[in-house]
Amino acid sequence: LWPLQLICKSWRPSFVNRATDLIFSPKYKGDTGRHQWVMSDKERRKYMDEDPYADIDVSISFDWNMIKSFGRIYKKENLAKIPKDVHIGIFSGDMDPIGGNKSSKAKKLAERYKGLGLDKTELHIYKDARHELHNEVCREEYYRDLVTFFDNAIE
Fold first, then answer.
1. Alpha-carbon span 138 to 145, nearest angstrom
2. What is the pLDDT of residue 68?
3. Which residues are CB-contacts of 63 (< 8 A; sequence separation ≥ 6)?
4. Rg (CA), the chain
């Protein structure tokens, strides 16, 4: 991506969202339409499909910087800089393809943080939920957990 980032950093290729649907959606047998991997709530998906401000194509620069950031975040020297008393919340749907099979990547991340002595790491996994928890059928539970997490973090 880096040559594209230098030449056309503001380019927003429309094929990226379509390609993401093609890659991740076949996992959800019997489901139809776009954004299957994003949320299971069909009414929310319909709303997203009809909203001209939803599902925007992100720029090459956004993708490039996100990929670079993930590479930097998990370097040992950067992990060592995380204060031991920081609150870390990991929230994942167990059907989110980004989070791994049954949230395996989210679980691994929580274990990694706890292994570094970051004992205030919380893992919340939501059954049958996909990528956008705020658009899932379990969103009320997710919002309660999120508010509780932040309330506990600031006490």
1. 11
2. 85
3. 1, 16
4. 18
Neighbour tally for 121: CB within 10 Å: 19
Exposed (0-12), middle (13-18) or buried (19+): which is 125, by Cβ within 10 Å? middle
Distance CA 38, CA 59 (A): 19
The count of C-alpha atoms lying within 13 angstroms of the C-alpha of 139, restricted to the half-sphere facing its C-beta, is 11
Supply 77's token pair: 């020297």
DSSP 101-153: GGGHHHHHHHHHHHHTT-TTEEEEEETT--S-GGGSTTHHHHHHHHHHHHHHH
At 33-73, the pLDDT tens digits run 788 888 999 999 898 888 888 877 777 778 778 888 888 88
pTM for the predicted model, two decimal places: 0.84
Whether residue 128 contacts residue 99, with contact meaning beta carbons closer than 8 Å, is answered with no
Q: What is the pLDDT of residues 74-107, one digit of tens each?
A: 899 999 999 999 999 999 999 999 888 888 999 9
